[in-house]
Amino acid sequence: EVQLVESGGGLVQPGGSLRLSCAASGFTFSSSAMSWVRQAPGKGLEWVSSIYSYSSNTYYADSVKGRFTISTDNAKNTLYLQMNSLKSEDTAVYYCAKGPAGIEDYWGQGTQVTVSS
Questions:
Q1: Which long-range contacts (CB under 8 A, 24 or more apart) does 100-106 make?
Q2: pLDDT grade, residue 53 (50/70/90)?
């Protein structure tokens, strides 16, 4: 059974940083593409970033490029999203997903990130 469990969300001031984690199980993590997707209050899903674990190629939405970094630890089957220079518009529920952008097939339960002073 595929399981994705996010953690690391919380309340942070504008300009601050957070690191999200996603513990994965039930599939071959090291050969899978993984993504982060977010949903802001009252809005639809927005793709944030993807990584191909087997090649380490990374991709970012323009809205987060240069501020967010996606990475994996294949020994721990864990996906990360380092978020720096956070803005109020980054406030959202962040979901970890198995699969590349637009082709995600499994999702975690989400973790809330709130950027506010």
A1: 100/33, 100/35, 100/50, 100/52, 101/35, 101/47, 101/50, 101/59, 102/47, 104/35, 104/37, 106/2, 106/4, 106/27
A2: confident
Contact 46, 92 (CB under 8 A): yes
Between the alpha carbon of residue 101 and those of residues 6, 13, 95, the distances in Å are: 18, 29, 12
Closest CA to 82 of 20, 33, 15, 14: 20
Can you give the pLDDT at residue 89? 97
Cα distance between residue 117 and residue 102, in whole Å: 33
